[in-house]
Design brief:
Strand order of the largest sheet: 4-3-2-1-7-6-5
Strand content: 15-25%
Number of helices: 12
Distance between the termini: 95 Å
Largest sheet: 7 strands, antiparallel
Bound molecules: zinc ion
Structural class: alpha+beta
Radius of gyration: 37 Å
Shape: rod-shaped
Length: 351
């Protein structure tokens, strides 16, 4: 239908013509007449449907196989699949073709670029995020940790905990021992021991990122007076605080959100946002590596305050015997037996 190769032959393009503002269309032919574009009815070429100077006609860009649309000043529309014909016509009248077809010619390179970008993004998520999370956690100021921890504690008190029913003298005794332990821990944090009835958290102990430590009545009762064992568990929690495991894990869990916020704004407000999102700490589970670090911290600190460094292994043995009833925070399945062996070996190393 077209004769784009011969610049002397007038270009004739067939397509459909839509009257102004109407969706119906009729078969039509687009021709040149002097410097004009003329649309005539397919069956009655003498009937002119639209006519305008070439420059006055708006031509849509060439995009793959999408039909070209030519809008005439009277708002009528000529539509055709004959891309080559339209391009030939525009060329003959000195109008430049759009850039889009030229980009399409570079498609292999474009695809390569897109693939490389996707790989880079995947790489950031796979390898970059844990590193970013660690950096961000190191940079998070104490004030943010305090605000976040206070928020988490308030949420837990509303939803999970009840007041402790431990006798006052028992609490005082444990507080005194804990104070000695805290004095030997990382001085960057302000430690406090808080007694609560655990409810569905049962026998448990955990630490919030600012050094707030919680010990449940159920765990105290489980220890049956073995204070060293309780202190070893709390020493393990102090290890999580000192190594910033909690906040690191929160950042890692927050994943993409954290990444975007850290890029978009300052680390402090990103941290605050993530940490104050309710009781995230409840669902927190540390990596095996973090647990091992905290276990070693317990052994070290127990030795420093002159208590039994192997006391943590006793606790794990109780958990081991209890099986599935183990407090969730400590059941890093599989491998309670492995942890017992590791703690005992590490404790012996230091002798
Ligand atoms: Zn732990």
């Amino acid at each position: 239908m077209t004769s784009a190769s011969d610049s002397l032959t007038p270009v004739v393009v067939s397509g459909f013509w839509h009257p102004p503002g109407a969706s119906r269309s009729e078969p039509a032919i687009l021709k040149e007449r002097n410097q004009d574009m003329v649309v005539v009815a397919d069956e009655y070429p003498s009937r002119i449907l639209s006519r305008a100077a070439v420059e006055a006609v708006a031509v849509s860009d060439r995009l793959a196989q999408i039909p070209r649309r030519l809008r005439f000043p009277d708002n009528s529309l000529f539509e055709t699949n004959d891309n080559d014909g339209i391009d030939a016509l525009l060329r003959r009248h000195g109008r430049r073709e759009s850039l889009v077809p030229r980009l399409e010619e570079f498609r292999p390179r474009l695809l390569l670029f897109v693939a490389a970008t996707l790989l880079l993004i995947a790489g950031i998520f796979r390898f970059g995020l844990p590193v970013l999370a660690d950096v961000a956690s190191d940079l998070t100021p104490q004030s943010v940790l305090r605000v976040a921890s206070r928020g988490s504690m308030a949420t837990l008190d509303q939803t999970v905990f009840q007041s402790s029913t431990l006798p006052a003298d028992e609490r005082r005794r444990l507080e005194t021992e804990f104070a000695a332990l805290a004095a030997a821990a990382d001085p960057a944090y302000t430690y406090s021991l808080n007694f609560r009835r655990g409810g569905r958290m049962e026998a448990n102990a955990f630490a919030l990122p600012d050094g707030t430590v919680v010990l449940t009545d159920e765990l105290v009762n489980l220890a049956k007076g073995d204070d060293d064992m309780l202190m070893a568990v709390l020493g393990h929690e102090l290890g999580h605080v000192a190594r910033r495991h909690g906040i690191k894990q929160l950042y890692r869990n927050a994943g993409a959100v954290a990444l975007i916020m850290m890029i978009a704004g300052d680390v402090g407000s990103a941290a605050e946002h993530i940490l104050t999102q309710g009781a995230a700490v409840l669902t927190l589970s540390y990596s095996r590596e973090a647990e091992n670090e905290a276990d070693r911290y317990s052994v070290d600190i127990m030795r420093r305050v002159g208590k039994d460094p192997e006391a943590l292994a006793r606790f794990f043995r109780i958990l081991y015997r209890r099986g599935d009833k183990s407090p969730q925070a400590f059941s890093t399945h599989p491998g309670t037996a492995d942890r017992i062996r590791a703690v005992e070996a590490y404790a012996r190393e230091g002798r």
